[in-house]
Amino acid sequence: MKIESLRRLRGPNVYLSRPAVVARLRLEELAGRETSDLTGFAERLLRALPGLAEHHCAAGAPGGFVSRLRGGTYFGHVTEHVCIELSQLIGRDVSFGRTVSTDEPGCYRLIMECPIDEPPESLVPRALLDAAVDLVGEVVAGRTFSSVALAAAGAGIPEMQHGFAGRLAGLAALAEREATGPSTRSIIEAARRRGIPVERCGDLSLVRLGWGDRRRLAWAAMSDRTSGVGIDVAGDKEITRRLLADAGVPIPDGGPARTTAEAARLFAELGGPLVVKPRQGRHGDRVTLGVATEDDLARAFAAAGEDAVVERQLGGRDYRVLVVAGAVVAAAERIAAYVLGDGRRTVTELIDRTNTDPRRGTGHSRVLTRITVDESVQRVLARQGRTLDSVPESGCQVWLRDTTNLSTGGTSHDVTDRVHPDVAGLCLRVAALVGLDIAGIDLRLPDIAEPLRPVVDGVEPAAGVIEVNAVPGLRMHLAPVRGRARDVGDAIVRSMFPAGSDGRIPTAAVTGTNGKTTVTRLTAHLLGDTGKRLGLTTTDGVSIDGRCIFRADATGPLSAQMVLGDPAVQMAVLETARGGLIKRGLGYDWSDVGVITNITADHLGQDGLGTIEDIAHVKALVAERVRDGGTLVLNADDPWVRSLVDRPRVRADRKRIVWFGLDAEQPVLVEHLAKGATAYLLQNGWLVQATGARRTPLVRLAELPGAFGGAALHAAANALAATATARALGAAQESVVHRLADFDPAVANPGRGTLLRLGDLSLFVDYAHNPAALAATLRTLHRLWGAERCVAAVTLPGDRRDDLLAACAQVVADGVGRAVLYDDDDPRGRQPGEVSTLVEREMRARRPKLRAVRAVGCREAVTAALDLSAPGDVVLVLYEKLEPVLDLLAGLGAVRGGAMPVPVLPLRPAPGAMTSPARDLVNGALRH
C-alpha cells in the first residue's frame, strides 16, 4: 500500500464538523483482498495494537472493529483504524475516521480527524498515515510486534529509541512540539465554550479570537491590549523594583550590579542570604538563591550573566497571584522540585520515576516540566548532605531546587480561596503600576491568608513582591498538584469579550451551481445603506469596504479567513464554491445566513462527484453550518434545493427557512406561507415580499436592472435571493427597494449578462458554462431577439466531463443559428482544440445544417462571430477570463448603452421551462 496524496480540510467539511485530512490510498498487491484471506493477520495486529479491541466501528460499541477484522474487511479500512490507534498512542486525541472507495479499483480516500488546534501545515498526519501503512504491511508480511514497545513509544519513554517504537516516539515528540502550550490551549478552549471563533496562526501560540472589527489576538497569556511599556517594565527587574519602591510597595532591599565590585558592595551591605538573578531573565533561569558566601556570590553573578539584580532573600512561602483586567483570578503556592524517598531507590532513580508522570514534559508543552539534573541540583543535594547516588529513607523529602518555578520542575498548590484582601489589593496595585492587563505577581509571604503590614521607613519588610511577570504561565493554576483547578483561560477570554460577546460579525455564505456570484455581489450592494463596512469574497477577488484588496478566484476558505480576519470588516458576504468546500472545507464554523441558489449538473467527474446527488451533498454543507436561529435562504423552484430541508443536519426546526421562487403556486411556498412565514416571490409582474397572506411589492420585474425588461427571469431569481439575504442581515425594506432599483449590473456585476453595442450589433457577454446556465441565457436572448438572430462565440471549460460538454453543445445547437467555437488558453488538462472538436461534433449531430466554424483563441472567435452576424443580430460571447474579453470588445469599439430590443416572445415566468429539446438532458439524464 502507499499514500499517493494528502490534503487538509481546515474547517467544517462534508465528512466532519472539525478539521480533517483526506488521503488517497492505493492498495496495490492488497487490492481485492480482505483480512480474512490472511491466516493469523487479525491476531498479529491485535497483539501489536491491543487498543483496537476498543474501537467501535459501525457496530457502535467496543469490539465492533475486531468483528469486522476477523470476519473480513479491506485493508484501507484497517489502515484507517491503525492510524487512529497510533494517534492515540502518541497522545493525539482523535477518534473519527472513514474510508471511502473511489471510481478507481484499489484506490480509497481515507478521511482522518485532526486535532482542532493542530497547525494547518502539520507534518504529523502524513507521518502517521505512512507509519500506519508500514505497520499494516509488516503485519501482512507476518511480523509480530510487541505491544509493550508500542505503548512505551506512546508514553514517550526516552530509552525507546529503536525500531517502530522509536519511530512513534519521534512522532510523539513532533506532535508535542506542534501543539499549543497549556496557557494558549486554555484560552482556546474557553473561547470555544463561549462560541467565539478561534483560528491559530500557523504553528505559533498566536491565536485570533472572533471576526472582523470584533477580532482580538492572544499570544499565550498576552492580549492585543497588553501594554508594550508594561512588558518592557516587567522584563527589567531593576526598573520594576524602582517603580514599585517609589509607590511604597514592599520589595526586598537590593539593587543592580553590572560588575563583581558592585555585587560585592551589595553583599557587604545586605549580608546573606541573598538572591542573584539576571536583570532580564525569565522562568527562574540562572537565578541563584541562598547566596551566603563570597564564593557563592561569584558563581551566582557569573551565572546571571554579569548584568544582575542582587537582593535580600525574603523568608516565608513562595506565591504567584494572577491578575486579569483588574481582578485577582487565581493564586498558587509554588513548591520547588523534590522527590520522596522509598528506602530502595537512589535520587537519580527517584527523579526518573517522577519524570514518567504523563503530566510532565519538556519545556512548557505540558502542565508540569520534567526535572533536569544539572550543577544546581547537585549543589542543593550537597547542602542536604546527599548525592545523586544517595538512597533516601522512606518518606524523606529531598529537595532538588531552590527556585520554585514550574519550568525547573516545581509544582503548585491552589490557594485562591485563601488570598487575604490586603494581598489581593496589593497585587491589583502592582499590576496597575507596571501597566499590565494580565500579570503574574510573585510574592514571598509568611501566609497568603494573613493581612499585610504597612511598609515602615528604614525597616526591611518581612514580606513583599519579588517579581512581576508579563505573559505569565498559567500552568500552575490550570492543573495544580493540590487544590482546585482554576479556569484562568476563561477569565482572560471574558476580559477580551465582556458582556457575553461571541466575537462574531453578521455573516452570509452563498453557494449553488449558477447565480452565486451575482447573488453575492447584489447582496453586498443591497447592504450598502446599513452603515457597516462589508467584506466580500467572489470569483473575482476579495473586497473590503468596496475596495478590491486581492484579485483571484476567492471562493474558498483562505479568502473567507482573509475577510473574517480583517479588523475593518463589520459584516461579511462570502461566495462559497464547490472546489473550496471539497478541497479545503469551510473558512468559518457557523454563518448567520446560508443561501443556496440552485443545484444542477456541473463539475461531474471531478473530486469524486459522480451525480447531482453528490453535488447536493457538498452544497448542503453551507445549509448545515447555519447557526441555530440563523436564516436559510432556499430556491423553492429547484427540487434538489427543496430536498435539503429533509437532511438531518439541516435541522429546519432550528433555523428560519426563507424560500424564494418564480412560481408562486409552488406547493412548498404555499404551505410555507400558510404557516405565516416569509418568502420572496415573483407575482403578477412584481418581485414581492410575502409573509402569510400579506404581499409587499418591492420592484416591478420590467424595471429590475439586469432583467432586460423581464426577459431574464433568472435575474429575478437572483434578485429575490439577494433580497432575502440582505433582509436577513438587517437591511431595511425601504433601503432594499431603493438599492434594487439603482443596481448597475455592468459596473457591479460585469460579465454576467453584460450588454454592449457595436454599431448595429448587440454583444451579450456571459459566463454561462453548464447546460442550465446556457439554457437560461439563451432563453433571455430568444425573448429579446428571437432564436434566428442569435450568434455565439463559444468556449467551454476543459475540466468538465464529456457528457456535460455534449449537453452544453446540444443546448447551444438548439439555441443559436450560427456559432464560432474556440478553446481557452488554458485547456484544463485536455489537448489544445480537443474541447471545440467535441462541441462541434455534438452540435452537428444535433443540427447537421447548423452553420458552425472553428477559431483559435478569443480574438479570432469574436472576429469570426461578428463576420457571421447581420445588422440587428445579437452575438453571445462566452469566456473564461473576463478582462481580456472586455478589453478586446472595447478595442473593437463596443460601448455600453443603446436601446434594448422589445421582447419578441411572451414572457411567461414558468420556472424550469426550456424552449430547447435539451431540457431532458439538463433536467433529467445527468442526474443519473
Main sheet summary: 11 strands, mixed
Q: Helix share of residues?
A: 25-40%
State the separation between the terminal residues, measured CA to CA. Answer: 33 Å
Query: Can you tell me the CATH architecture of the domain at 507-747?
Result: 3-Layer(aba) Sandwich
Residue runs with pLDDT of under 50 for 5 or more positions:
153-161, 909-928
CATH topology of the domain at 507-747: UDP-N-acetylmuramoyl-L-alanine:D-glutamate ligase
Computed structural class: alpha/beta
Total strands: the figure is 37
What's the overall geometry?
Answer: elongated
Function: Catalyzes the ATP-dependent polymerization of arginine and aspartate to multi-L-arginyl-poly-L-aspartic acid (cyanophycin; a water-insoluble reserve polymer).
Protein name: Cyanophycin synthetase
Family: In the C-terminal section; belongs to the MurCDEF family.
Organism: Paractinoplanes rishiriensis
Overview of the molecule:
This protein has 928 residues and is an alpha/beta fold. Among the domains are: 2-178, no CATH class; 507-747, Mur-like, catalytic domain (UDP-N-acetylmuramoyl-L-alanine:D-glutamate ligase, 3-Layer(aba) Sandwich), CATH 3.40.1190; 752-927, Protein-Tyrosine Phosphatase, Chain A. The strands form eight sheets. The chain has an eleven-stranded mixed β-sheet, with helices on both faces. It has a six-stranded mixed β-sheet with strand order 32-33-37-34-35-36, sandwiched between helices. A five-stranded antiparallel β-sheet has the order 18-13-12-19-20. The longest helix has 17 residues, at 124-140. It starts with a strand and ends in a 5-residue tail after the last helix.
